[in-house]
Specification:
Largest sheet: none
Low-confidence stretches: none
Mean pLDDT: 95
Number of domains: 1
Organism: Marinobacter azerbaijanicus
Shape: globular
Protein name: Aminopyrimidine aminohydrolase
Strand content: under 5%
Distance between the termini: 44 Å
CATH architecture: Up-down Bundle
Number of helices: 11
Helix content: over 70%
Function: Catalyzes an amino-pyrimidine hydrolysis reaction at the C5' of the pyrimidine moiety of thiamine compounds, a reaction that is part of a thiamine salvage pathway.
CATH class: Mainly Alpha
CATH superfamily: Heme oxygenase-like
Pathway: Cofactor biosynthesis; thiamine diphosphate biosynthesis
Number of strands: 0
Order of helices and strands: HHHHHHHHHHH
CATH topology: Heme Oxygenase, Chain A
Catalytic activity: 4-amino-5-aminomethyl-2-methylpyrimidine + H2O = 4-amino-5-hydroxymethyl-2-methylpyrimidine + NH4(+); thiamine + H2O = 5-(2-hydroxyethyl)-4-methylthiazole + 4-amino-5-hydroxymethyl-2-methylpyrimidine + H(+)
Bound molecules: 4-amino-5-hydroxymethyl-2-methylpyrimidine
């Protein structure tokens, strides 16, 4: 049987669920999340996205074909045009200026995750890099869908985090997520069992670093 993206998730189900259904996510969905925790997360996510944009640019650099190049561009575009724009305006609403954002120190969880992905991409090939990026691209789309499937989730003006959910359920983000899964399914179909094990390690590492990112938000750790 050829491997698929689903197999990466299946092989680290516990970590994947701990990421998707993290208490930060649940509290964001039911509007009980402390604003300070959200603001801390949002500021760090701004710094995170800058490094992730670099990682997608690295994917572009490592792309041997036009279609690979297009896929890297999709990711870069989702970050720069969908996420970063919203983060900046969201931060303004919450009283955080672009100047404050520019001078912010990176939390350890931000450093660990982003540098892990960049290092994996530098050291490995394009598939290693896309696998390292996939918990981010696919996870947040899945989180929005999971939140929408829960009765506890509050949507609309009674939830101050509604725009966050709206961003990740948007067609633009969901399309980018589906394109990433398709791209990975095509490449994973050709890999050997030992190569798949290597890729699974990267996927599981990145997923664990996503969990740490939520923890950093909840605890407002630096
Ligand atoms: C930490 C983190 N993971 C994933 C995404 C989705 O791009 C994000 N904005 N931040």
């Amino acid at each position: 049987m050829p491997y698929r993206f689903e197999d990466l998730k299946k092989n680290c189900q516990t970590e994947w669920r701990a990421y998707i259904e993290h208490s930060f996510v649940q509290q964001l969905g039911d509007a009980s999340l402390a604003p300070e925790a959200f603001q801390h997360y949002l500021k760090q996510d701004y710094l995170f996205l800058i490094q992730f944009a670099r990682a997608f640019a690295l994917a572009a650099y490592k792309s041997p074909t036009l279609s690979d190049l297009r896929q890297a561009k999709e990711g870069l575009q989702a970050i720069m045009d969908v996420e970063l724009d919203l983060h900046i305006s969201y931060c303004k609403e919450w009283g955080i200026s672009e100047e404050e954002l520019a001078n912010l120190p990176e939390a350890r969880a931000t450093l660990a995750y982003t540098r892990y992905v960049l290092d994996t991409g530098n050291r490995g090939d394009l598939l290693d890099l896309h696998v390292a990026l996939s918990p981010c691209m696919v996870g947040y789309g899945e989180i929005a869908n999971w939140l929408n499937s829960r009765r506890e989730t509050v949507r609309g003006k009674n939830n101050p985090y509604d725009a966050w959910i709206a961003m990740y359920e948007s067609d633009e983000f969901q399309d980018a997520m589906r394109a990433e899964i398709l791209w990975l399914d095509e490449r994973l179909a050709d890999v050997s069992p030992s190569r798949f094990d290597q890729l699974n390690r990267i996927f599981s590492d990145a997923t664990r670093l996503e969990i740490d990112f939520w923890e950093m938000g909840l605890k407002q750790s630096d």
